[in-house]
Each structure stands twice: as structure tokens, then as C-alpha cells.
Amino acid sequence: MSPKHALSAKLATSSLVYSTESGRMCPACRQPVAACVCHVKPVPKGDGVVRVGRETKGRGGKAVTLVKGLALDEAALLAVGKQLKAACGSGGTVKDGVIEVQGDHCDKVVEWLKKQGHTVKRAGG
């Protein structure tokens, strides 16, 4: 095979990773990353009860309020996390389907979630 044919064969099998029209492309489904359907994470299944607890493990003794069991997709979970952080006047993050709010705000978080219509339990001690 000539070098010219080898190069064209290599280009034919390579996948598109960026388009000037739509940005980054998913290598699996070849759709724009924003419209990718192959990497959509399923909504976590649970028992319908949101558990709110306080944890200090691995954080140098600093308390963090954890919210587990919200059966929401990633975008909705980020939005709820943002609203909870604003309600508590604190920082935090969303990791692996768990909302973390800096500080001990369990009572505030439980009341806020009950107002939103969720079934809430305090977890831990």
C-alpha cells in the first residue's frame, strides 16, 4: 500500500472530536457533547426517602451536611444543590449523586426539603 493510501485509510477510521459548528463531539455516537445520548447517566433508584446527615470523616474535623437519595438527574441535582447552598448561606458541591453543604445545616436542609415536598429523614446520630 502506498503512503498516500495508508494516510487516507487512517483518516477514514479516525473519529471526529471537534467541529467548528458545534464544538466537541462524542466519539461513540458522533453527536455534539451537549446532545450526546450514549453517555446519559440513569436516574438513581431509591426508596423515595431523602436522607440528610452530618459527616466529619476525612475533612480535618470540619462538618459537612450530606443529602443522599434525591431521585433526580444530574442537572436537577446541581440546581437543588445550588438552592440549598444559597438557603444555608454556605458553599458546597455535588458529587456522585450526593449534595454536600459545608457546615452543620441539617435542620435547615430538612425543613427546606420538606417545603419542596420530599420525604426526609435525618441520618446518623
How would you explain this protein's 3D organization?
- There is one protein chain.
- This protein is of the alpha+beta class and 125 residues long.
- It folds into two domains: 3-35, no CATH class; 49-122, Translation Initiation Factor Eif1 (2-Layer Sandwich), CATH 3.30.780.10.
- It is 29% helix and 23% strand.
- It has three helices and seven strands; from the N terminus they run αββββαββαβ.
- It has helices spanning 3-13, 74-88, 106-115; strands spanning 18-19, 23-24, 49-55, 64-68, 92-95, 98-102, 119-122.
- The strands form two sheets. It has a five-stranded mixed sheet, with helices on one face. It has a two-stranded antiparallel ribbon with strand order 1-2.
- A hairpin with a 2-residue loop joins strand 5 (92-95) and strand 6.
- It is elongated and about 50 Å long.
